[in-house]
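seq as requested:
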Amino acid sequence: MTSPQLRLGIIGLGRAFMLMLPTLAQDRRIVLAGAHDPRGDAREQFTRDFGAAAYATAEELCAAPDIDAVYIASPHQFHVAHVALAAEHGKHVLVEKPMALNLADCDAMIAAAAAAQVHLIVGHCHSFDAPYLRTRALIESGAYGKVRMIQALNYTDFLYRPRRPEELDTAQGGGAVFSQAPHQIDVARLLAGKRVKSVRAATGIWDKARPTEGAYTAFVAFDGAVHASLTYSGYGHFDSDEMMGWAGELGAVRDAAQYGAARAKLRGVKTPQEEAALKNTRAYGTAPFDANARAAAYNHFGMVIASCEGADLRPMADGVWIYANDKKTFEPLPPPSTPRGEVIDELYAAIFDGTRPLHDGAWGKDTLAVCLALLRSAREDREITL
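struct tokens:
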């Protein structure tokens, strides 16, 4: 029997959609059935590329009868309204991280989905990635004892990629904590398998021209005597892909010679308007794209080590290193069939198989709670209990 296809609508054809586009275009379970974006040129491009309707408003998209679910890839501050619209029209929802900018909005989104009896899944976050899922399975097998400690470290050029003004304003959801910490927090929560008890953190705002958090270190304590140390820097100096065999975050092979490329592109930018225009050149409708692009390896989010009582487990872009008491072994993963296919696995299983999703609204809210505690801990210089 032929499996049903999921007719997916898109809200927001910006950078997040561009990153998910190869996944959505290549996965045979998905039909791109419609889109909304405020940019007319992006809507026209979508119709040309996919032969599907593009709508001037999000409400029109959500009301379309030939759409089963909506992928919300709009800016952070619009997530709560767009989730409410989708749920009101009976559509299942995949919403980008962070789920929202405050916990009250998370509650409203969860309530809207529950009232409409639709699924709400938060992602893509890197805890969907196969290497982390396999590491969690190894932990759950009990073969290496209980997990006790998690180290996560990622150094990127995040802060020097082209940004709109609000993306450099923490109050509007800008900075590394709202945009990048959900990845590390999600991975740590997945591997710990426990509730977060407390957070002690410090953040870095080191560039006056980009006055938002570009770096952080957090000590996260979980129930069950598990703790994690999370460090992130987006200041574009050291690149931790060097520690991942130069496999990039999105699974592509990196060119180690391209040092400082992000900062170099910004040097000619004189105004916030010019920078926003530069960012727009990376969005759908302006940037070139290859919907058939294949990833050489799985997505990842820097170096992660999960220390169990009997082994250290190190997920890589193509498998998991196991450093046990007597020997070191590598457990490879089969090459990915489509980039980020794990996201569609979870969405599809929830809608068609009735499988409870891991990354549901409650999961997304708990991750945001840790992000907010991280910011508060740094601001108040103390440990925050959740």
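The chain is about 35% helix and 20% strand.
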